[in-house]
User: What shape does this take?
Amino acid sequence: MRFAIAAGIGLFITLIGFINARFIVANPATIVSRGELNAITITFLIGLVVTAVLVVRRVKGALVLGIIFTTLIAVPIGRLYGNASAVNFGIPTLVTWKGIFAVPDFSLLFKLDVFGSLKLAVWPVIFAFLFTDMFDSLSIFVGVAEAGDLMNENGEPRRIKESLIVDSVATFLAGLVGSSSGTSYIESATGIEESGRTGLTAVVVGLMFIPFMFLSPLLSIVPAIATAPALVSVGVFMMKPIAKINWMTLDDAIPAFIAMVLIPMTYSITQGIVRGFLSWTLIKLFVGKVEEITPMLLIIDAFSILALVL
Assistant: This one.
């Protein structure tokens, strides 16, 4: 299941990259379909090829260089040719310039309503968010550890307990200051690919974000299609653990496969994990391998069913 979750997250990252570039779009007839071949998708494909070549040649900072290159070749879209309105919130120019300096918005600082959130009617929402955040974070730590070979001598992710504690504290503090959740994200795998192996990676990234509290308009220069090649590339590396799944043992392979494919297909890491765990339990139960169903798994299954009901 751990290997399948890591691979499923890789597929999820890749799907996000293709969607950001509009290379994959919604289609009422087939659910999803290939996007129109236009200036935007052609630019994405060029950026993807260049990024892939840099990665294969093991150039330092290949993903960052790929993002910079794709940003530069995207500048003419909406200026010299093409129209980016469909993918850029109605703005025809893909690479926009909104200035340099902007004052941060602190209007939500310490504005949370603690007592209001403890009403009985809100409990299902709290549980749903807690369950989703916990399983998303846990699966991301597992996936990133697999991709970066950050495993202990028993083949388990290193310092998973400490990682979850830090994640929960960051999420709590984010709520206090009124920002988006400070939890882990699957895009963090890009740091692993750029050789990040310690907490110093996160510290450096965090310090680099501080100036952009005041220079946020500069970020508008980088369009979504510029980061899309990096996401697709990282998806490749996240697929490595799939080779460790014993596909000949079907009572292991089927639940793993369900979890892996449902993560991108439901566009939710939690949904893939929940259905993977439940299918694992049911299959093991009906084939007589009850010894592989642990008490902790039953507890997780109970919470999974509760989350689905809520």
